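S1.2 Input.
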Amino acid sequence: MKYRFFATLLLISLCTFAQNIQSPSEFLGYELGTNFTRHHRVVAYYKYLAEQLPNMVQLKSYGSTYEGRKLLVAFVSTAENIHNLEEIKQEHLKSLEGKSASEIALVWMSYNVHGNEAVSTEASMKTIYELLTTQKDWLKNTVLIFNPCMNPDGRDRYVNWYYNYKNTPFTVDKNSKEHNEPWLSGRPNHYMFDLNRDWAWVTQKESQQYVPLYNEWLPHIHVDFHEQSMDSPYYFAPASEPMHEVITKWQRNFQTEIGKNHASYFDNNGWLYFTKEEFDLLYPSYGDTYPIYNGAIGMTYEQGGSGRAGLAVKTANGDTLTLKNRIEHHFTTGISTVEMASKNAKKLNEELNDFYTEKNYEYNSYVLAGNVDKLSMLTKLLDVHKISYGFTSEKIKGFDYKSKKTATLDNNDQKLVISTNQPKSTLITVLFEPETMLTDSLTYDITAWSLPYAYGLDAVATKNIITTETDKLFVPAFTFEENSYAYVTDWNSMDDARFLTDLLQKNIRVRYTKEPFSINETQFKSGSLIVRNSDNSTVKNFSNTLKTIAEKHHKILTSTTTGFVNKGKDFGSGSVDLISKPTVALLSGGKVSTLNFGEVWHFFEQQLHYPVTVLDATYFSNIDIDAYDILILPETSSLKEEQLRKIKTWIKDGGKLIAIGKANKSLASDDDFSISLKEDEENDSISKPKSYALSARNYIQNLITGAIYKAKVDTTHPLAFGYTDTYYSMKLNGDAYNYLTTKNAVYLENTSAPLSGFAGVNAQKKQPNSVVFGTEKVGKGTVVYFVDNPLFRGFWENGKLFFVNALFMVE
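S1.3 Output.
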């Protein structure tokens, strides 16, 4: 009795104190919405709440960004729920077995994944404050997980820039500097990656930290708060088609119920909004789809504004949109979401149990074979997503990804097996499906992504569950024989590439073979690496250094006491050449794509670990580019005439240019380069006028929206060393280029339709007999053409070695 009295007294005192905590405006010293809040001040407010209300707010730091900013989430609920948080989590996770008896709803709200969509972090502070004070009743059967800022580096880049250039106090004229961000905008993270497209691929440091945390909790509802163009009304669920076929009826219907609840609040306030348009649920790497494929009600909320809106801006219809307006809208949908979760907590738990029960998918096992390094890389991705797998050496018959027919993986090597008899069956089905089923061709993003294609692995899909022999990938034991004449190793993966760059960074000289050979009864293909003792006689501790680097990268080195080969060219042949240690520059700024620039930048620094110098377009004309052996031209809409003239002179004098994607258009229009765009086929027939209402659908006939094409590979070309005769290329637009006169390394012959994904009918007509990757000599130098982007979003693993070959193998 005495205990109950004091417990009640404590609860009353906590409730009273909760209403006396400082609001965001009081804590920050300015009215919320009259300034943007830098990230460290946001963190300080969340820490303040956790210190003042430790029984209701629990903070968890889950890492830091590339620039060292803190990443955190806040768990918010009643004192009782926070005290029992671990027990609630464990009971909730029984849903994975369909056995949870919980009636508490878990709601995760993620803010500011795009840094210059800066309103959402401000709204998060208002939302958490109101839930702790005026809306506490909804916390009785809900646990809220707030991520106040998923992209602190991008947010502070935007906020700091805005403070530098805003008028005093501000101007609503959208032409003013404060409404026009520079090239390096705040939207992406440090490496210019769009974190909202990285949930499934986890290429970025931020994703690598928050996706595992998300998988620890697997909430019932996940909301991703965004902004769109400043003239757009608010968008909330339900989403538009195409919705992936694996999305359940309950997930679709409850989106609608939540949307109706939002609409009631917006209607009462006279606010404009739209639903069921533009934002679909297909691509698996979004902050709405990834949660959906893991059982949640995943939703995107989009407020008009974004980087152009500032503190206030005049919209196209003459109204003034303020930061306060934008905060209020996001706050309203956030509160409405929590309300719906609380009112439907029991149903949310029941449906999540049902989601994780056994499903009847077309394929129940996906079996992959190929290079061990690539298999290992894929297993690391599966581990992040808590997807179970195993290995078998049996022959497996099923639907073959390469031929699109029934075939058998009949080699005796290890094969990776991922089956659907596990909780992550829905996510597995989406990530490994051979072909995406589209209910609508108008989509917001790419329409194909299947991991066997992305990793360059042979694969079959089977209707039955395949029994595995082990859950471990067999890797041969490392051995090293000192004082050999030379050490030879294969070349076919990014592990090999990192091994090479580590050696070069230690000033170890490495040779490569341009033709296949055999030695000591071992076959080596073109591109194989040869490290000779005598080439490195001046390197201190050469043997120990080589051994350490080989162990680090799990490289098997074949020792040989001679350079006399059994078959092929000896080590002293002109077909065996030293690999240079090139100086590399990367163009930025101007009309260069920030995303593609970031892909290349991240590739060098975080994947290949090789130095690159970033040159900006603003001072490019003042630079002596003869200091660089290689210049990389990322995707760009155009080059200035003087830039192109300078680059051409440099190439003719011996430089190597690597052009990616649309950058090739600038070269195609110049007579000094042989690459040329394929023109649209002329249609002599008289066509009927097109419907205005169908103009968008008519337009997409010319597009390829991220589709996978099966291309042929000339394995004798140095750009293709380490590859087989087939490459699966991700095409991102409808452009096609004619064959080069010679040196087409990767190309399409009679292929018009993609293996997977959408390609418009007119775009398909241009694809046959087109180059994908190739090279040509221009004067003393070389141009490498990457028509398709081999580094797309950092997840198209099988394209990366082409890029490394362009750096080190192509002369």
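S1.4 Remarks. The chain has a mean pLDDT of 94.
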